[in-house]
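Example 3.2
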Amino acid sequence: MPLQNRVTPFGDIAALEGRGLLMGNRGILHDNARRIVHYAKLRRWIACRLEWKGIRRTVMTPHRYTELFFLDEVTAFAAGHRPCAECRREDFRRFCAVWARCFGDPSGADAIDLQLHGDRLLKPRVKKTYAADVARLPDGAFISEDGRAWLVRGKALLAWSQQGYETRRKRPPHRDVEVLTPRSAVAVLSAGYEAGFHPSSE
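Structure, written as tokens:
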């Protein structure tokens, strides 16, 4: 039975196979039996590299932060996370530079985390979504349809799964859809931040 540590584009933490391309955290979410008992404990939700400086961790060690895993960077964005300022320093700097073009200064971690926190949750454990024209969404944004998360990429919508992107649909020319990716992250993607995609999205 897999541990409950995979994050979906809806922001949920699920027990799914595989670990994805990125790791991240929201604080200590598990108990001593490695069961998830909290949705988040911090405002600082980050997405990290799987490997960095040879550090090895035992997943869900008691009293240590809960290792969460994402299929790819755009999934992490949809869930409300941003690049780690330590292990992904260059990605974080790129993110901050684009953020500053969108929202002005300050564009450091504290200001970004404060705005993302307001954009990702309607209330505790309830994701904030909004309506937008699918034709105007950037590559990397996620929408919700038929109870599934769909990635916008080029002229297609790709259905998210735990192993990668599978079902494909043609992106409609114009239609209001429910957007999962927080508004501020969509703005950063629209302004040119090049996020990471799982190879199955090609």
